[in-house]
Amino acid sequence: MFIMSEDSQRTQGRDAQSSNIMAGKAVAESVRTTLGPRGMDKMLVDSGGEVVITNDGATILNEMDIEHPAAQMIVEVAESQEEEVGDGTTTAGVVAGNLLGEAEDLIEQDVHATTIVEGYHEAAQIALEAIDEQVQEAEVDDEILKQVAESSMTGKGTGGLTAESLAETVVEAVRHVDSEDGVARDNVAVHTQIGASSNATELVPGIVLDEEPAHDEMPSEVENASIAVLDVELEVQTGEIDAEYAIDSIDQLNAAIDAEEGELQGYAETIAESGADVVFTTDGVDDRVSSALASEGVLLFDDLTSSDAKDVVSATGARRVGALDDLEESDFGEADLIRTENFGDDDLAFIEGGAAAEAVTVFVRGGTEHVVDELERAIGDALDVVATALESGEVVPGAGATEIAIADKVRQEAAGIEGRKQLAVTAFADALDIVPRTLAANTGQDPIDALVDLRAAHESEGRAGLITDGEDVTIDDPFEYGVVDPADVKREAVESATEAATMIVRIDDVIAAE
């Protein structure tokens, strides 16, 4: 009896577990060397020859052409980590891979997969308790937020800028969108522009659009602007069906032209008389309308995407209008300044300030595409973790100190767990050692010696991390050096890594259709 297609491939039992674990470990290993302030970069080249240079774990895993389903689960760990808290993707992936490695050893010792899963879940709960114990008691103020941002960006490609100088920009941006309702992270945008040193990176109190004026004679700058946002086509109206009109004389032709001109002139007059200084529309605009508006000193941008129009509304407080006859002064938004600027082949519109302004943009500059892309990723992660820290109000020590504390607590609690599950709980602690060991290896230290010293310092001082200061590597309290991470980043890494590892370990049958 044939139940499955003859072309199907089936792997069962220990072979299936071994194959899945090996795939997961391989993916985790691919990002391990990027961890920490001395982490290395990866060059990813796709089939079309496009190059990405980065040490961002989520980007690396997303760019890799991964087909193995178990390996894809590790990629999903990074994606989940990135989506939830914005950073810690490499840590989550590396921990998940090492949990699989420890599980493989236990399976070889005939420990059942279910026992390993139960042990891992129990250990994860202990780990979360350990993270709570490591939370800094001090209030999360701007200085701590800068430390969070700087810790996130240290070791990443930031061009000619230091992580310290960028951290100030990041914190200012997040503070701009902080309110009693929480941090509106979506209102912070990152806009990149090639053509200058990264030192030209600045914070724009508003939004930046890839748009140019509809007419060359329009003003390049408007202060205290009254802004209209339209979903209106400012062109000659045509019917939805094809039609032909017979013109028998020059008078009829002139009458048709006059009617057309009158229609277009009416659009321009309606807008000019409304009092709007600046107009954004999602539809096309006839050259005659834009010329007439230019003579009236009105700045017009046409063919905006719906997304850009939404951003303008959010930044200025305007209301989108679908019919020109409905345009009223109450629909207008406001901005302190709207200006256009040319950057080589690109024209950008800057919409800054205003009573209703909610958005802010980090305007990133860089000499090459690779520089601005990596800078954009670094700033994006920093914005995410600062927003996370500000909302939760909880930070923990970085530099591997939290992982050392977690592993220590898990080992202590393991002694009170009976049966083979104790082996799985202990293995969970051993798996977390991969973080300080990798940090040590990436800084040129001996991983074993560094781990022993970190454990000893933790036992005697209560908190110990591997601090990198220039060429020097010191074991000390990370809080004293401003090396901190949001507690939620660590919690998410533990939970997502545990979930992925246990899911993979439980699979003992793989059926693949050709």
From TrEMBL:
Residue segments, region Disordered: 1-20
Cited InterPro entries: Chaperone_TCP-1, Chaperonin_TCP-1_CS, Cpn60/GroEL/TCP-1, GroEL-like_apical_dom_sf, GROEL-like_equatorial_sf, TCP-1-like_intermed_sf, TCP-1_chaperonin, thermosome_alpha
Keyword set includes Kinase: no
Matching Pfam families: Cpn60_TCP1 (PF00118)
GO molecular function: ATP binding; ATP hydrolysis activity; ATP-dependent protein folding chaperone; unfolded protein binding
Highest taxon of the lineage: Archaea
Keyword flag Membrane: no
Signal peptide positions (record): none
Ranges in a coiled coil: none
Gene3D superfamilies: GroEL, GroEL-like equatorial domain, TCP-1-like chaperonin intermediate domain
Protein keywords: ATP-binding, Chaperone, Nucleotide-binding
PROSITE patterns: TCP1_1, TCP1_2, TCP1_3
PANTHER family, sorted: CHAPERONIN
Protein family: Belongs to the TCP-1 chaperonin family.
NCBIfam families per UniProt: thermosome_alpha, thermosome_beta
UniProt-recorded name of the protein: Thermosome subunit
Organism: Natrialba swarupiae
Record lineage: Archaea, Methanobacteriati, Methanobacteriota, Stenosarchaea group, Halobacteria
